[in-house]
């Protein structure tokens, strides 16, 4: 029985639909694709604006992998891609022993090239950027967007090498990649080279399959690196590889100084003692800007602990660092490298170029202001306790660190010390706008209610001393180190000690009242009423000149005059003690404090002392008992006061 006409037409149409692809499959499979290599090489070279060549065999096979229709698998051996014109040697960007991929057929009807998997076997990849910023990984794009879309789902990378050369950041590093039998990672790599002119080496692992379609699928990464002495260990994932975003890592860092991280991160951090830190690093790496967050980190800098959160964002006009850092216990010695006040051994360990001269006390190491304009910062820092030693704790330090356009300010910088409070504001202009080779600095500080016995706890006799200090400092200077800043400073220092009491033994020793010292040692020390102590120094071009410096008690008055030269670190002070009551065997004479900060010299007026000694010797010949008379001082009486 003949079939109806409509049925015959439907069957014929169906046969054509099935036959055409089948014929196409047979035809494509029977073609010698090696003959098409010159044509493919030429067309692809033109499309990507750089040399492309398939030097080995080219074959097409049809395989069915869970699809309705089989997919063509193109396999090319010995594939080479050159650098774009103008890029210096090495001239080749990529060579692959075998390059293979499959294409889904049905998406072609919608002008979409769907590649489920792109496989590179034994590749040698070179990523390169020259000093002008031109790179070899950006391919030529037509002005008119193509109607065809590429959908690359995943990349499989087997044994090979990757080299990265960057003239902008001074990087030349190579990694040898090999497959590993690991349930989490598919490849392992060994790295060697230079990064920002620092030697870099290490190893790590990564996934063998990079999914570009499932953006939430984690791509595992881990590494253990050494970069110029900084040790870096991380493990985590990359969850959006198509956009090179969403890094999520557990990160460990350690090294000689936090400042060394600038070469790696571009983040400006201060000079410090050796450090170690561990925390959670997340990042979004955008095309024009990136955002990094280092959260829940803990660690140590020297003997001090640190913890907190830092947020770093790139952008224009410059990158920005913000966050909060806390410390439970901060050692004063760990702050030394910030201003170059650490030892020469410490300077050598952290790679400082300048060494402290043996005859200098004030730090001469220059500030590196050339980096201050590379970043803006707004970081809050708190320290619960700061110790110089067990005897002088500083508590509750808090400061807001601002850095904008090369101007660093600490507004405010406050802390508790010796039972009182120290408040200050500090501004350091390192922008170079005023002086290209120096910092313009200002300091305003106030100390209130500092307790004497807490301020000098290790000095004999001070534990029985009471009274409190109040002081004000206002200085302005220009220089490129602590020494040069203080050596050029202008301003004033004022201070006063309110009424209280002071150790008699300490005063007797300062007044050279030998007999009273002996008696005090025999019968014990006692407290002497302190009427006042006032200091007033004018500072001009680094020279502190005493306008008023008086210590007045119920038993003595000491006037101090002279200068302290911060430029050449020289002392020239005269202490004139004057007793208010009778002293036995008093050698009261002017006391001179001279010499350098490093080696101060204390001496007595030899002329006055010789005159008294000569009189005593003459009287001793006539009447030994009378010899004591010239050595007895009655003093000016019971007047007191801190005014001249």
TrEMBL record:
Superkingdom classification of source: Bacteria
One Pfam entry for this protein is AsmA
Which part of the chain is the AsmA domain?
15-169, 170-547
Question: What residue ranges carry the coiled-coil annotation?
Answer: none
The protein, known as? AsmA family protein
